[in-house]
Amino acid sequence: MRLDSKVPFLRCAQRTFASQTSGELKVTQILKEKFPQAATIKVTDISGGCGSMYEIHIESEEFKDKRILQQHQMVNKALKEEIKEMHGLRIFTSVPKH
C-alpha cells in the first residue's frame, strides 16, 4: 500500500518570507520543549506550506558524544506523533562549537 494513498488532499497555506506556518511553529515549540539546551532550532516547511514535509536543523549540547543516527533518533522520538502526518522529514543535527 502506498503511503500517499491514505493521506487526504492537502491544501497549501500562503506564506511570506518573514512568517512561519502554523506547522513550523508547532514543530519548533515541541523541539524547544524536548531539547531545552538547543542553541539553534530551525524548522522549514519544504512542502510549500502544506505541512507534509519539513527540514529541521538543531544544534544542541544534548547531541554531544552521540552518533548522527542516535541524534536523528532523538529528533524522531520527540516528533513521534507529528511524523505520522508527514510525508517526509530532513534532519540536520550538530553540537555547538565552543
CATH topology grouping of the domain at 39-94: GMP Synthetase, Chain A, domain 3
Structural class by helix and strand composition:
alpha+beta
Helical stretch count?
Answer: 3
Uncertain segments of ≥5 residues (pLDDT<50)? 1-10
Order of helices and strands: HEEHHE
Identify the overall geometry. Answer: globular
Radius of gyration: 14 Å
CATH homology superfamily name of the domain at 39-94: BolA-like
Strand order, biggest sheet? Answer: 1-2-3
Bin the strand percentage: 15-25%
CATH class of the domain at 39-94: Alpha Beta
Total strands: the figure is 3
CATH architecture title of the domain at 39-94: 2-Layer Sandwich
> What is the overall pLDDT average?
86
Main sheet record: 3 strands, mixed
Subunit structure: Interacts with NFU1.
Keywords: Mitochondrion
InterPro entries: BolA, BolA-like_sf, Mt_Fe-S_assembly_factor
Pfam family, one: BolA
Relevant terms:
single chain; alpha+beta; 3 helices; 3 strands; 98 residues; GMP Synthetase, Chain A, domain 3; three-stranded mixed beta sheet
